[in-house]
Request: fold
Amino acid sequence: MTLDKTVASAAEAVADIPDGASLAVGGFGLSGNPIQLIEALLEQGAGDLSIVSNNCGVDGWGLGILLGAGRISKMTSSYVGENKEFARQYLEGELEVELVPQGTLAEKLRAGGAGIPAFFTRSGVGTQVAEGGLPMKYNPDGTVAKSSDPKDIRTFDLGGTGEKQYALEESIVTDYALVHAAVGDRHGNLVFNKATRQFAPPAAMSGKVCIAQVERLVEPGEIDPDQVHLPGVYVHRVVEVGQDIEKRIEKRTVRTASTTDKDA
Reply:
């Protein structure tokens, strides 16, 4: 089998993703969204998708374009506050939503990729995250159609710090993973940039088939092994998208220049 994992286009990279597939998608806010792969998946037409990602983009960008087209049936996320269409679909019973604490979500993905089926964590203990009852899906009339189940709770004395309660979290393994990297080589070794490292590596690890779009494709050996953030063993397809792609942020906050600023 060849070690060259490159494919010619984003369309080719996502061509076999079927209806009903589960996907882990990298990105932190809009930083590191694999937008070319998302747009190719929109064009490809797969629907009824179950997606695990820190958030669901914004209206008209990132995962928000799949959401707006009605292609997503379930989102597992930590933060959903920038997308009005997300709120509408959730509250009107069109979208199932599983909310997970941010660090827990990252570990669920990483653990899934590492072959660890579950782990205990303090996060969420004493709340509906652990006790159950979080609305996951509504009926059109506003009543709750589905709620989260309670988690197993055990007591541990970790390192002699005293007995505390911990909740059992099951790990996540998805059919596919879509991630964006700054640099990648033909063997699938990836280098991420800044905040992109928050969720892209664990998302990539959790996918049975990981598809990476890279801004710059280099030959094997050009990346210093000490600089590799994700080894190619986790990556199955690589597509180069170039360095002049559009990159957005959720909000741009500015202030009026003061007199001192103007004189500086």
In short: Residues 122-170 form one domain. Residues 60 and 68 are 7 Å apart (CA to CA).
